[in-house]
């Protein structure tokens, strides 16, 4: 089984006709995803040839859902227009909105996050690589050919570390990998993904990748202690980060001792999560767990 995304998922792409949207629509199609439409008000009614597949373009998300039965939207809209694009997806009640766009103002993310509360739409992102259920579907920019289907679940703040972990454990394979993004305000959290993997009968063990800044990993540790019975292995990016420096992701702001890699590592280890000092060491820890299952 997969979390949030499966072989029946019908995907639309907001911003499909832009260069990034088109490039990754091709990649998603090539990996077996069902792309059923694009959304661009200026090109509504047109059909776009994507590697021989004719994909219709709709004026709104609501129209796309009505015509195609879409249940996932992948959003490649530029930062200035991303807020309205996400709000449109929420108002159309699409079950899953995957916000790939980087550089969305935090205030805008806060607005659409607040707008989603109590509604039917799960947001993944923003500033994330999306999610993949290998061999089934791929919504976002994660390379589809670096791993296979398997029993490991992966949730990660970092895109590149998502890819590295998938590659390091490619012989074991993944049920799903979810890149949640590293911005200060995100939709789906480590905790949401951990619970989904806990509930998924085909996920046997979980890798959780965090990074310095904020307290998401400490909160995840507290949640693991109370609710997660499957083995979890962790990695926290930023052990060698100079103190007081703001790192690449907007979320990676350290305040005092909280938010450091060491503090996060200690919080996770206190609840029985094995934490690697490098991605390769983390993969080795997961390999040992899977072999013992």
TrEMBL record:
Give the catalysed reaction(s), semicolon-separated. succinate + ATP + CoA = succinyl-CoA + ADP + phosphate; GTP + succinate + CoA = succinyl-CoA + GDP + phosphate
Chain sites annotated for binding substrate: 163
Cited Gene3D superfamilies: NAD(P)-binding Rossmann-like Domain (3.40.50.720), Succinyl-CoA synthetase domains (3.40.50.261)
Q: What is its EC number?
A: 6.2.1.5
- The signal peptide stretch is none
Q: Which domain of life is it from?
A: Bacteria
Subunit architecture: Heterotetramer of two alpha and two beta subunits.
What task does this protein carry out? Succinyl-CoA synthetase functions in the citric acid cycle (TCA), coupling the hydrolysis of succinyl-CoA to the synthesis of either ATP or GTP and thus represents the only step of substrate-level phosphorylation in the TCA. The alpha subunit of the enzyme binds the substrates coenzyme A and phosphate, while succinate binding and nucleotide specificity is provided by the beta subunit.
What protein name does the entry list? Succinate--CoA ligase [ADP-forming] subunit alpha
């Amino acid at each position: 089984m997969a979390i949030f995304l499966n072989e029946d998922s019908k995907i639309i792409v907001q911003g499909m006709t832009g260069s990034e949207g088109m490039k990754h629509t091709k990649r998603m199609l090539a990996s077996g995803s069902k792309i059923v439409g694009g959304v661009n008000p200026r090109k509504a009614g047109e059909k776009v040839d994507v590697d021989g597949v004719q994909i219709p373009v709709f004026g709104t998300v609501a129209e796309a859902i009505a015509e195609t039965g879409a249940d996932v939207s992948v959003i490649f809209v530029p930062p200035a227009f991303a807020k309205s694009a996400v709000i449109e997806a929420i108002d159309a009640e699409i079950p899953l909105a995957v916000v790939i766009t980087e550089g969305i103002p935090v205030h805008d993310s806060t607005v659409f996050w607040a707008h989603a509360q109590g509604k039917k739409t799960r947001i993944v992102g923003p500033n994330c690589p999306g999610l993949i259920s290998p061999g089934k579907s791929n919504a976002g920019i994660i390379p589809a050919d670096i791993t296979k289907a398997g029993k490991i679940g992966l949730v990660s703040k970092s895109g590149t570390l998502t890819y590295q972990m998938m590659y390091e454990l490619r012989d074991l394979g993944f049920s799903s990998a979810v890149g949640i993004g590293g911005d200060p305000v995100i939709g789906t959290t480590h905790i949401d993904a951990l619970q989904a993997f806990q509930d998924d009968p085909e996920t046997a063990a979980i890798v959780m990748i965090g990074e310095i800044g904020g307290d998401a990993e400490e909160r995840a540790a507290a949640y693991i202690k109370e609710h997660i019975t499957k083995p979890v292995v962790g990695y926290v990016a930023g052990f060698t980060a100079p103190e007081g420096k703001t790192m690449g992701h907007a979320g990676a702001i350290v305040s005092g001792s909280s938010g450091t890699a060491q503090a996060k590592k200690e919080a996770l280890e206190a609840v029985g999560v094995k934490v690697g000092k490098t991605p390769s060491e983390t993969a080795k820890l997961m390999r040992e767990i899977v072999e013992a299952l």
